[in-house]
Amino acid sequence: MMNNQKKDRQVNDYVLLFSAGAALGTIFLWGASYIFPEGEIVQGRRVFENIPKYLQYLFYLLSASSIFICGYLFSLRAKNWTRGTEEKRKVKFSQRVINLFDGLLMRTLLRFKAAGLMHSMIYLGFLGLFAGTITLEIHHLMPPSLKFLQGTTYLVYSFSLELASLVYLAGIAWALYRRIFGTEDRLKTKTKMDDYLTLLLLGFMGVSGLTTEAGRIIVEGFPNYEKWSFVGYFIAELLPIENGIIFHRISWILHVVSFFVFLIVLPQSKLRHIVTSPVNMYLSPNERPKGAMKDIGNLMELEDIDTVGVELIENFTWKQLLDLDACTTCGRCTSVCPANLTGKPLDPREIILKVGQVMSDTGEPPVPSTVTTPIDLKVKSSSVFERVTPEELWACTSCKACDEICPVNIEILDKILDMRRHLALMASDFPTELGKAYVAMENSSNPWGASQNDRMKWSEDLDFDIPLLEENNKEEVEYLYWVGCAGAFDDRNVPVTKAVATLLKRANVSYAVLGPKEICTGDSARRTGNEFVFQQLAIQNIENMNNLNVKKVITQCPHCFNTIANEYPQLGGDFEVIHHSQLLTELVQSGKIEVGSTEKPYSITYHDSCYLGRHNDIYTAPREIVGSIGGIEIREMKRQGTKSFCCGAGGGRMWMEENTGKKVNIERSQEAIDTGADEVAVACPFCYIMMDDGVKELGEGENVRVRDVSLILLDNLKKD
Fold first, then answer.
1. Same domain, 38 and 160
2. What is the rounded CA–CA span in Å between residue 107 and residue 120?
3. Handedness of CA 474, 475, 476, 478 (dihedral sign)
4. Burial state string for 68-89 with b = 16 or more CB within 10 A and e = fewer than 16
5. 292: in domain
6. Are residues 192 and 331 in the same domain?
């Protein structure tokens, strides 16, 4: 386990030991190669053909040295991870293995066709060539009677390596083309001279390998069986050389030296992700629910609190620091960030790179950061705020699109929210309007600042009674219907609450509400870093719910759903939570709610809520409700499902002004309008408000209606 406590051995020590062992193993192979004579080779090649003994000795010595130096440099990087605090991730070993193979087999990267194929060509080509080198060394160590790279086996071996070389070099050429001529901003903005030099080094390794092979074929006199090495043979025929001895040796030296340079560069450049990314993926499985923020303990029980959240590199966990070194700088996180795409200062990739620079520059000793920066940007302390600004962090909508798309499982949102915790609680550096929401949550128990006595006003004009959950009926009620602050106080969402209650009654569902006893779940407080307010609200809710023997909860707000289901267990509240779209879908499918058809056909597009979708993987239930109604055509937006675009209200942004760039809800509302749908369906009160405002601001309020799925269902029940 990597943490900041003093231990006999740290992960960097094990990396160093491993590299020392690998270096000694190389020396052992050198000695082992002299145990058996080379023997006669038929239709094959001799290892170190045309290479003098002194160069062979130098090869093994430099190989061992390069391997050790590579490991030593990686150990310095790993030493940085030990600066982080302890984080236990108790998951099944099988989960880790699956994640590891996702990385090694490039499954996550292959979600992006062009980039996935290009990287696969480089990766698989390199692995093929490396495997060929290992195979040749095994052959080299065998006694003459067991040497296997001869005859047909050698022909297949040679042909396979030629294919691997072509695939590898084609991948390198494609990568260079994308860097030079590509139009994707995420690549162009971060392409440095380092990238070109790295690709040229990788390309040189491949080309020098082929020229070395061509030189060897010339030295051997163009044997017929070497035609299976078709690329090398072709190059050999083109070369105007009769005696290839010098050419072969020079090519061999350059090829070997390029590999040694690669080993030294590997831990110090962006190339390190070849190692760190699969390691990060192996260690990424977490027993913490996907939608939950990191548990920092019950602050109400602590007598002395030094700090909350993250200000210094040492405040991050070891896994969060490993994340920083796993980044490939691909920029996919930035390409889907709603804040960045609408002109806000937040760039998720920059957050990782900036924090990574702080970690790298303040290491003992410092190590190269992922992307080079001008000298005037060098940091002087381990404070992340030397490079990260509050404006960047407050622009985040916590939509989780960055985490969802990252091909190497970097947890970006966690870092942003941890830094917000410091800003909100330790630095009191937060937007003014957010302070008003904090006060309202503390004084009125809801961010609207409404009176708790008005919690049941929504039910006053219903023609049936809404049961309250109390001591005398707590054993009889199956579900607690959690109305939520928006459902109780917001004019647009009150009809949603009435619709859900009506549908529950129609289906004879046993439920009750808390009424004035229900207070805000604290989601907005927690997402904006105010852990104290969150815990005050959460603990009160949990105690109340536990006292009333609550087991099952229905919510119509995905934010309430996520908080009660995924975060209340951290404070002792374990409840089975179901979103109203899920329950209504079950009731429709079971026949307890009978669905009819619309009076006239029309089209609907569904907007995925981030906290229902990416945070909790609920995508089909709301669509199934709408899809069960006859006469409705569902038209999907360009960005939907896991790739859906945020409405702009998450992460506490509901309570903050949006003064920079284009409004996020306008961007999303325009996308909904562009589908040509007559109605936009939502399953979240925040999304309802933001999408309705957006459609109206775009002047389409008369043509495009925004409604919750429960309202659409209630309007289209089967006629009695």
1. yes
2. 10
3. positive
4. bbbbbbbbbbbbbbbbbbebee
5. no
6. no
Give the Cα separation of 655 and 647 in Å (integer): 13
pLDDT in tens, 412-449: 999 999 999 999 999 999 999 999 999 999 999 999 99
Domain that holds residue 330: 299-426
CA pseudo-torsion sign 289, 290, 292, 293 = positive
- Same domain? For 253 and 308 the reply is no
| Phi, psi of 499, deg, nearest 5 | -65, -45
Residues 630 and 606 in one domain: yes
Identify the CA nearest to 326 among candidates 294, 296, 301, 349: 349
Gap between the Cα atoms of 487 and 684, Å rounded? 10
- CA–CA separation, 570 vs 192, rounded Å? 44
Boundary residue ending a domain (282, 317, 334) = 282
The pair of structure tokens assigned to 86 is: 């302890």
Burial class from Cβ neighbours inside 10 Å (0-12, 13-18, 19+) for residue 9 reads exposed
- Decide if pLDDT at 295 tops 60: yes
**Tokens describing residue 446:** 């809801």
Placement of tokens 């006999």 in the chain? 8
The Cα–Cα gap between 630 and 208 comes to 66
Q: What is the pTM of this model?
A: 0.92
Instruction: Encode pLDDT of 579-611 as tens digits.
Output: 999 999 999 999 999 999 998 999 999 999 999
